[in-house]
Amino acid sequence: MSKAASNKIALIGGGGVRTPLVIFGIQESAQALHADELVLFDPDAERVRIMADLGRGIVAREGGSLRIRIAASAEDAIAGAGFVLSSLRVGGIASRAQDERIALAHGYPGQETTGPGGFAMGLRTVNASIGYARLMEKHSPDGWLINFTNPAGMITQAISHHTGVKVVGICDTPIELFHRIATALQAPPERVRCDYMGLNHLGWVHRIRLDGKDVLQDLLGDNRALGELYPGNLFDPDLLRSLQMLPTEYLYFYYCRRRALANQRAAGTTRGEEVARLNERLLAELAGYLQSGQIKEAIAAYTAYLNQRSGSYMKLEASAGSAFDEKVDPEQDPFRTATGYHRIALDVMNALIGATPRRIVVNVPNRGAITDIGDEDIVEVPCTISDNSIQPEACGALPEAARGLVLSVKAYERAVIQAALSGSALTARKAMLLYPPIGEWEPSETLLEDILKDSSTRQNFGHP
């Protein structure tokens, strides 16, 4: 989106529970973004209506003028949009919960973007994401596609390789770790520079500079500071010292698989199942409040939901905790946090239409940023973003402790995309064989059979 581009922004997947956060962020930056209309599309008409009504209430509370409209079709939403945000959840939260339960039944941790759950999510999401991107090629060829859809790196790669749209994948995980590092160092974020590289949900901070001085070793030597870096007690400090890097929290499902599995079994549930319960309760509350015109109460219920969900993040996997524990520690205002789902999107969009370069970690074609990876493969690295341009930062070679894992996961991502497009069970099983969290041939047959019992996965497997 350039300064002269459309004043319309589209959100595909507008029935998602984080849509009101996005609405708040776009409203807050509407003038900078030259945006006067946000158009929502979602196949679930009732959910998108609830989110649109709540979003209008948030805009009114903020004294804004952003128009929120529900699109009649995906084409209607996309046509002429300067930015198209993609936040798909094919199959809904029910498919996520089922994926995670299948993973547990087969002896793997249940998680939506890694392990068998991530494989299943990719398998059913690739074709749908490419389909929307092809609509964008036709109806908004000059716009930017901002991909939230998980697994974000894999989906961004599928769109980048199989369409001609300008696409960037975003995730708030790296910036959240950067902010936690700054907090642990007791320094404002602008004084701390983190060097980072990897793939989405598979990245590491490998250098930290405070006012230009490398302080990684100081941080690695401070158990108190290390304890502040992650939600829950995820990583043994000696594990971090052995790596000489700080991984994002998703590496827990690679480095600590047995502990994650044991905690999920002890809890008797999965995060997906708990989120499904939270969502069901939220939607019932919102429907009641909005129907009776109680906008203030609806916003309060949504705020409480965000706090409960974010406050319990990773507690189940790390310590068999629950989102329904009374000791969840909420944030003060989830709308105005410095990081989060909506902040990274707004940062990227504002940078793309601005003349002042910004350094932001996003998912883009490698273009030589990581020397071990092909130029067209999607990587997650710091980029300089400004004036309709995204330039990845030169990161060099992958550290020895990360190289094998990153290359294996990238090969796995390519194979999942190929399997999803072709509908080949053999290629799908090959993907699981290449993938370190699974990494065996024999279990892949029954695992794939169970994954394809989900109707949305089966319908999207090999069916563009």
UniProtKB/TrEMBL annotation:
Keywords: Cobalt, Glycosidase, Hydrolase, Iron, Manganese, Metal-binding, NAD, Nickel. The active site is at 172 (proton donor), 250 (proton acceptor). This is 6-phospho-beta-glucosidase. Mn(2+) binds at residues 171, 201. Substrate binds at residues 96, 150. It comes from the Bacteria. Its cofactor is NAD(+). One of its GO terms (biological process) is carbohydrate metabolic process. Belongs to the glycosyl hydrolase 4 family. It comes from Paracidobacterium acidisoli. One of its GO terms (molecular function) is metal ion binding. The record marks 112 as: Increases basicity of active site Tyr. Binds 1 NAD(+) per subunit. Residues 196-436 form the Glycosyl hydrolase family 4 C-terminal domain.
